[in-house]
Design a protein that fits this description.
By secondary structure, this protein is mostly beta strands. The chain is built from two helices and 17 strands. Strands 3-2-5-6-7 form a five-stranded antiparallel β-sheet, with no helix packed on it. The protein starts with 36 loop residues before the first strand and ends in a 16-residue tail after the last strand.
């Protein structure tokens, strides 16, 4: 299916119901179609650098917009959580985060902070010839990761060298942001972890600052131990604790 009706588009895109019949269909990429923000919506609807999709394609055709350090010319390329969008002509760098309503927030960052990215480890395995691998939430694969890196941990890697700089374990006391569900975008500290018998395994549920917030590990994103390496949005920008 290569088309998407506007009425069926994700709500967090914030498209007007009467603004047309169609919505941009995200291309196959590092983020899921229902959890991403196409580049055309980022440039035209959020940054207001274009008035139409045609103008957006002309901007992208000049290779003026980079996502994670790579110039993208596809106007339906899916950008997602923790992606770094850079526009060199205007000397602007943005990191995609969630606000408290679950919508994508373009958080302005410095050039130094735009050089690295956080990734949630989604899989760890041993491949051919005994080579260990780990993959992140955005589809990246790293060879020979640290032996202590496990599923649900968070790694920080350099976008230029593609090397893992450091990592943090999924433990109590770490700062997290809920990346899915009804409390998407909330920031808190893991107070405790509970185990409930699941379908095939025991699934730890972190509990944030509020005792009624419980989420499975696939819906949380760790920031760091004590202090986050990222410049987090202020409560006025829509990310209250």
């Amino acid at each position: 299916k290569k088309h998407l009706k506007r009425i069926a588009a994700p709500k967090h895109w914030m498209l007007a119901k009467l603004g047309g019949q169609w919505a941009p269909k995200p291309s196959a990429g590092p983020h899921k179609a229902r959890e991403c923000l196409p580049l055309v919506l980022l440039i035209r609807n959020r940054l207001k650098y274009a008035l139409s999709g045609r103008e957006t394609q002309m901007i992208l055709g000049q290779k003026a917009v980079k996502v994670d350090g790579v110039a993208r010319t596809d106007h339906t390329f899916p950008t997602g959580f923790m992606d770094v969008v850079s526009i060199e002509k205007t000397n602007e760098h943005f990191r995609l985060l969630h606000d408290v309503k679950g919508r994508y927030l373009l958080h302005r960052v410095t050039k130094e902070e735009a050089g690295y990215k956080l990734g949630k480890v989604s899989r760890v395995w041993v491949g051919l010839k005994g080579i260990p691998y780990c993959s992140t939430h955005d589809g990246r694969t790293f060879r020979y990761p640290h032996p202590d890196i496990a599923i649900n941990d968070t790694i920080r890697f350099d976008l230029k060298t593609k090397k893992i700089l450091d990592f943090v374990k999924f433990e109590t006391g770490n700062l997290v942001m809920v990346s899915g569900g009804r409390n998407c975008g909330r920031i808190g500290v893991i107070v405790s972890k509970e185990k409930h018998p699941g379908h095939l395994r025991y699934c730890p549920h972190p509990r944030l600052c509020r005792p009624d917030l419980r989420h499975p590990p696939r819906l949380r994103f760790r920031y760091w131990q004590g202090v986050s390496p990222l410049d987090l949005p202020s409560p006025q920008q829509g990310c209250p604790p």
